[in-house]
């Protein structure tokens, strides 16, 4: 999983805040499928909304395009339009896995993403808790931060005890389907980045980039 600090800039957050204030929120369990419906208790902006959602989506499109960390980690092929959710006092989303296909037309959900639109001081409880191979991690990230995690992982949102928690969530089909392949490519990319920073002409930086590119060609498109 990956924490991206400050995916959104302060002026983008300000605009999103004002758009959210104008929007009507509906019962969020309507957009959950099967088992998730029973454990989902939050509010969401209507998917059919033609006013607010497209404007917020445009901000996210640009922010994701401009984030090297997001691009390197997720290698997106397709991204589901963002859902805007609000958790008020007592609301929560119990342990669940996300559907393997989402969106219209459906895409394969390799990665899930939460963008935090409320700062950690705006609510108590409400942590995004993810059960990864190394154990459980609870995220309560800064306003404008994002967390991206593989859809293989069970996760939940703890009950909000005070205040309110606004987030935007989406799902990504990666160019690289396999979670282990993605991790190797991400690690190689990080090492290449630091070698390149030390010396852009270092032959080993080129060799590493060559190995990364060749692996990406080998593993992409699955
Ligand atoms: O609110 C969140 O951070 C995650 C929500 C979630 O798990 C979902 O919508 O499937
Ligand atoms: Fe989920």
From TrEMBL:
UniProt-recorded Gene Ontology molecular function terms: dioxygenase activity
Entry keyword Oxidoreductase: yes
Domain of life: Bacteria
Cofactors demanded by this protein: L-ascorbate
Alphabetized UniProt keyword annotations: Dioxygenase, Iron, Metal-binding, Oxidoreductase, Vitamin C
InterPro entries: Oxoglu/Fe-dep_dioxygenase_dom, PKHD_hydroxylase, Pro_4_hyd_alph, Pro_4_hyd_alph_FE2OG_OXY
Record keyword Phosphoprotein present: no
Protein name: Fe2+-dependent dioxygenase
Ranges that cross the membrane: none
Matches recorded under Pfam families: 2OG-FeII_Oxy_3
Residues in coiled coil: none
Domain Fe2OG dioxygenase, residue spans: 78-174
């Amino acid at each position: 999983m990956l924490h991206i600090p400050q995916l959104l800039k302060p002026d983008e957050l300000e605009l999103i805040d004002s758009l959210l204030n104008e929007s009507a929120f509906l019962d969020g369990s309507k957009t959950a499928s099967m088992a998730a419906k029973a454990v989902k208790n939050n509010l969401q902006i209507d998917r059919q909304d033609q006013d607010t959602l497209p404007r917020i989506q445009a901000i996210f499109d640009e922010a994701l395009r401009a984030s090297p960390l997001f691009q390197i980690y997720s290698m997106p092929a397709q991204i589901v339009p963002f859902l805007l959710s609000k958790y008020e006092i007592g609301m929560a989303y119990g342990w669940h896995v996300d559907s393997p296909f989402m969106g219209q037309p459906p895409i394969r959900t390799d990665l899930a993403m939460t963008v935090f639109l409320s700062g950690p001081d705006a609510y108590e409880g409400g942590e995004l808790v993810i059960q990864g191979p190394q154990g459980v991690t609870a995220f309560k990230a800064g306003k404008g931060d994002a967390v991206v995690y593989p859809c293989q992982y069970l996760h939940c949102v703890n009950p909000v005890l005070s205040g309110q928690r606004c987030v935007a969530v989406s799902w990504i089909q990666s160019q690289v389907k396999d979670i282990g392949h993605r991790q190797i490519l991400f690690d190689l990319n990080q090492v290449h980045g630091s070698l390149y920073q030390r010396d852009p002409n270092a032959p080993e930086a080129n060799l590493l980039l060559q190995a990364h590119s060749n692996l990406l060609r080998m593993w992409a498109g699955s």
